[in-house]
Predict the structure.
Amino acid sequence: MESVAGIAVADLGLSGLLALTVLLILGGGLVPRRQYRSALAEKDQQIAEHRADKVAQRQIIDEQAMQISLLIPKIELSVHIADALKKLGEGEGS
């Protein structure tokens, strides 16, 4: 015998089953199909927005990595020039 919320369906009768359904809807145990589909569509939209944000972040990260890769040789050259000037300055002072 089937049971709903621990109560045998055959013992309820038609009006009892209807009352149980209304109580489940009011208590949040059952959700109308329209509300379910609306919530599902909203979640799908949030997921799509999250994916778009993630793609945009990935592009920004890739661009930053490329810029850093371009700057590293220039920074190394600047450090080398600064060291050479420092050594040149120390040589003149003595």
Observations:
- The chain has a mean pLDDT of 87.
- The first helix runs from residue 9 to 27.
- Residues 1-30 form one domain.
